[in-house]
Amino acid sequence: MRTLLLASLCFAIPGLVSAQDWDRAHRVIGKTQEDLHRIEHHDVWAAPDRGHYDAAERNLSDVRHDLDENRLDRGRLEATIGEIEHITHVDGLDRHAREVLMEDVRELRRLRDAWRWR
């Protein structure tokens, strides 16, 4: 009876994140990192644009590290979305890379919006 009561309380507490949510978050962040790595060596990077690329990489790495420790920082995730959005507006970025990154931004937003923030 005591176990049943404790289990019921765990499911009733808002903000608990399921294993499926963590798995999805890892997949979204990993795919975005891979997509950014594919465009890393483009010759389109003016110094300010390169700074946005570097910030996006750093933020994604930090978000991934947070996920490995079962936490997710909303501010860092939002900063990452902003940096990648900026990259999608770089003039020299080819159409395919732009579309892929725009889809990554949509997925990151879905992740942010669906997350059960504590």
- The tally of helices reads 5
Beta-strand portion reads under 5%
Termini distance?
Answer: 28 Å
Low-pLDDT ranges: 2-15
Can you give the mean pLDDT?
A: 83
Mind telling me the C-alpha Rg?
17 Å
The number of distinct structural domains comes to 1
Give me the CATH fold name. Substrate Binding Domain Of Dnak, Chain:A, Domain 2
Shape: elongated
Overall helicity = over 70%
**Largest sheet, described in full?**
none
Secondary-structure-derived class:
mainly alpha
What is the helix/strand order?
HHHHH
* Number of E strands: 0
Would you identify the CATH architecture? Up-down Bundle
Compact summary:
Helix content is 75%, strand content 0%. The protein has 5 helices and no strands.
Describe the structure.
The protein has a single domain (16-114), classed as Substrate Binding Domain Of Dnak, Chain:A, Domain 2 (Up-down Bundle). The chain is built from 5 helices and no strands. The protein starts with a helix and ends with a helix. The longest helix has 22 residues, at 47-68. It is mainly alpha-helical. Helix 2 (19-39) packs antiparallel against helix 3 (47-68), helix 2 (19-39) packs antiparallel against helix 5 (95-114) and helix 3 (47-68) runs antiparallel to helix 4 (74-88).
Features:
5 helices; elongated
